[in-house]
Amino acid sequence: MMKKTSLKDIAQHLNCSLITVSRALNGREDDPHVSPELRKKIRSAAEELHYVRSRSARTLRLGKSKSIGLVSTCLCGHFHSCNIDAFFKESLNRGYQFKIVLTKYDKEQEENALKELLQEQPDAILYQPFLDCSSPVSQFLEKQNFPMLLLGGASENNHFNSIQFDQESFWDDIFQTFVERGHKEIAIQAELSDEMLHFYALKYDISPERMLQRGATRKMLDENHERMAQRKVKALVSMHSQDTQTYFNYLQQRRLPCPDAIGVYGIPGELVLHENYLGAVVSDLHEYVELCFDKLIAAINEPDTPPQNYILPRRFFPVDELKKLQKQQMEDPWYGLYTT
User: Fold this and answer.
1) Cross-strand partners of 69
2) 179 and 262 share a domain?
3) Both 15 and 91 in a single domain?
4) Which range is least confidently modeled, 35-44, 151-160, 261-270, 317-326?
5) Domain extent at residue 193
6) Between β-strands 277-282 and 235-240, what pairing exists: parallel, antiparallel or unpaired?
7) Domain boundary at 282, 310, 327, which?
8) What pTM was computed for the model?
9) Cα angle vertex 301, ends 138, 304, to 5°?
């Protein structure tokens, strides 16, 4: 096995002091004790000798590791992967390294993943699953006043900053669209409380029916497709556009008619061309990613600021408006990663 190159090896190779090598590789760029020419020479030697910089040493010296971690449920699906890619690129643009750990929707793995990430000494963490505020690792982070940003839906944990999407304002537009199409019975495969289901049923004189509970597995989704096909569902609100596309494919393979459908999350893509796709609920993902990093870096620089919850607007786009929006995004370089 090849011996790991140390700072001492580089110092001996260049015949200079150990402290000079350390300052050049782990210190500040404006350190007056190391000239730009010498710093360049030392870094070239480090590369030649395959030196791997110690992040912990740099963290101890500078107080920050210049890295951000992400705890995510999975990498599956276009929407998940594009969001993570956007976080990765934004992190690099802001001068931070990016580390990802996955939970696979498992509570025990979630806590282990967070512990693993903390060993990497990130300056802050973006957190996509729902952090259990009673867990030991959550309580530890709270006591340490660690910079965290909880992403996504509502959370009982109010000890950290969080960013949520508006979950309610678009439902009126969704049900109004179905009513205008003559639908009374509507299958709901998306997050909506029983209280809100009852409210909209009375308001629009409709019969919305919840088809799946939150956290449904792939097997449960497949079984639900068969159940909806047997019941000849005519109107569907789907949690993810990907689920809508999968259900449409299921029906088309069996030569069955597709229901009128609306998506709540995800990137519709070619679904906008389907005659039964009525539209989708959309948020500004560019604004979302930038706000996440603005708030996270603010928490790094000002850790004593009380945690805040931020709500991002979302609205329903009928399919014609959705086509125009997707065309605009395809012409925007930032959104290129979502359309390739």
Assistant:
1) 99, 125
2) yes
3) no
4) 151-160
5) 171-282
6) unpaired
7) 282
8) 0.69
9) 55
